[in-house]
Every structure is written in structure tokens, then in C-alpha cells.
Amino acid sequence: MRRIPRVRTFALAALLSASAVCRAYAGSPSMQEFTQIERGRYLSILSDCAGCHTVPGGKPFSGGRPIETPFGNIISPNVTPDLETGIGAWSDDQFDAAVRKGIGRTGAHIYPAMPYNAYTRMSRDDVMAIRAYLNSLEPVRQSRNANTLPFPFNIRSAMSVWNALYFTAGEFKPDPTKSAEWNRGKFIVEGPAHCGACHTPKTLLGGDRADQYLQGANLQGWSAPDITNNRRTGLGSWTAEDVALYLKTGHNRAAAATGPMAEAVELSTSRMRDEDTKAIATYLKSLPGNTDQAGPAAVDANVMAAGGAIFRDQCSACHGIEGKGVPHLFPALAESTMVHSNDPTTAIRMVLRGARSVGTKAEPTAPGMPSYGWQLDDRQIAAVLSFVRNSWGGAAAPIDAAEVTRVRSDTALRND
User: Fold this and answer.
1) What percentage of the chain exceeds 90 in pLDDT?
2) Which keywords, in A-to-Z order, does the entry hold (predicted)?
């Protein structure tokens, strides 16, 4: 199934800026209206609305982006204020029901590719502010292509069963025993930022596995990492400052954002206020995650020797002979949660296809990793990754060549 990359364009930043909002409402007599629009603009950043509702080279928020799911592609709708193809003719109640309850304008269920199960944590006032911002944009007339969901997933009424299993409506309620910063972080993570959509494992029906909250998942040909405070596979070795810096710049002393996370950093987290990235970090660092620790991995000595030789020849120039990398530039493999993840999909993919990190206002350099899929065969890639996963104090299951073959085939089919 081909993955359609999320939009990555600095032109969008200008359209999302406060100055654009000012121009849209030039001459408005009400400062209160502008305040609501600006609040909605920021909430749309927290919610990463542009990531799904804008296609590369297209008009902002005019929809048409295929959202890949395990059941088929769902096409994002036009949410500009066009009266016929957008949301211009929607009532406030209809818009609120769609965003927070998953009920479309006609009363039909919306598929949870639009994460209403997270957006329900926002208040109606939050949603009305987002609508005020969207209404300030240029109306775009653009019809929506049909979804490509096969039977029986194309039966929307079946969503009532999904909702009964996995959807609980209700606004976020602060925990009075926790700090305001912690509560703000939890609200953003569980609500507008919908972090669980990527980082929480899913059932066969696509619902969240609540008992594995934010412990990593596989989607769209990538493995989203564990973002709990697990020491081996999560953020346990990161400080709260490391987490906040990663969200704000796309880099920190140990890691660099790539793939879907790089796009989320570019369009959403890098544009958040510092106090919000710090709040997210505070909340994530409070999550214990799975406390199970891996014992010493049984890796064949010949595999380790072969992998070590490949690492010295191909990888050490950037990542260092001891896997320490270069802070804010090349990831420290010795501390990489992606490298030690129980799901090695992303690590394999990056060696096969290479990757480009994200450039942000704070750190505009976007370092890249070259592809080695043309140079190394599946057995060699498995060896070097098994070496990296079990060196410098690390311990993780060795990777089999068959797993590399699977990822190579999948990425070739996606052509992304």
C-alpha cells in the first residue's frame, strides 16, 4: 500500500502565521474575534490539522490527502469555508459533532483516521476557535475523491461497534493532585496532539490497546517508538529538557527526527510554545511504561564480528566508533531508543532507504543518512543492526535477514 507523504512546505508556515490571520480579518471591528481566530490557529497547530488536510503543492486545508490505514486509504476532506465542498455551510453544532464525536454533517459516522477519539478531550470552545480560524481562510472549491476501503470496512454504520469498543466521549479533566504543567502536557498528548494515534499499539480493528499506552506501534511502513519512560525502549535515558528540545528543534544530544515524526515536528511541535513542549516532556517523563528489561541477547559471535566490521567501514564516520554520534547532528546509536526498539522496522528502513532529518527555525540544518540498500544485502544489514543493538551496553534481539527482506519488499511497494 503506497504511503502518501505528509506535506512539507515552508510556504504553509506563512499561511498559518498570525500575520495571515490578520490579513484575513483586516478591518474586523472586533478584537475578540481576532483573539478567537488566533487561539484557533494555535489549536490547529497543536492538533496538526494541516498535516492531514493539505496535500503537497495544494491549497492549505483543502483536503484530498490519502490517509493510509490497515484497511485502505481514507481521503481527507476540504475544511476551508467553501460553501459547497468545504465546511462553509456547516452549523457550529455539526462541526463540533464531527470533531469531538465522530458524527458527520449527514449523521453518518466518521472514520477514526480523523482522531475524534482524541479531539473529544478538547472543549466546545476549543473547537469553535478552530472553526473561527478555518473560516478566516480562503475558501477553496475542491471536491473530495472517494475512499478506497473494501467491504465490509466501507460500511459506516459498523463504526457504531468500533465506537462502543474504543471511544469514550468527554472533555479532559485535570488531576488536582498534579501540577498545572503536568495537566497541560497530558491534555496536549491525549487531546489535540493525538500522540496515541501513532505511538499506541492497535488491535486488529484499529483501536488503541489501552494497556500498552504510548509504548510504540507500527504504521505506514514505520515503527513509531515507545515514548514512555522505559529505560531501554523509551525515553528513560532522556531528560525532560532532551524531550522538549527534540519536539522544538527535531534534534537533541541523542536523536534526530525522521520519517512521519520529522513531518510532525515541522508542522506542529516546532511551532508550539516553549511552555507547551516542556509540559509535554513533563507528562511523558512521568509515564513508567513497560518495566520489563531485556536480558543479554544471544547473538552469534560471527554475526557480531561481521556487523562490527561493516559498522566501522560504513557507519563510524558519522556515528562514532563507540556509537556516540554528534549531538544535534548525528544520532547517538548507543542511546537510541529506535535502535533498541522491540520493532526494528524503522531501523531497517533507514539503513535500506536512508533518511532525511527535519530542518526547523531553531535548527535549520537537516542532516541526512544515505541509503545502503543498494550496497549491502539483507544478511549484511541484519548483521550490522544486530551489532548496533547489542554493543556499548545495549541488549536487544538480533535481527534476522528475513525481517530485512520483508521491510525491503514493503518499502519497494510503497515507493516512498
Assistant:
1) 56
2) Cell membrane, Heme, Iron, Membrane, Metal-binding, Repeat, Signal
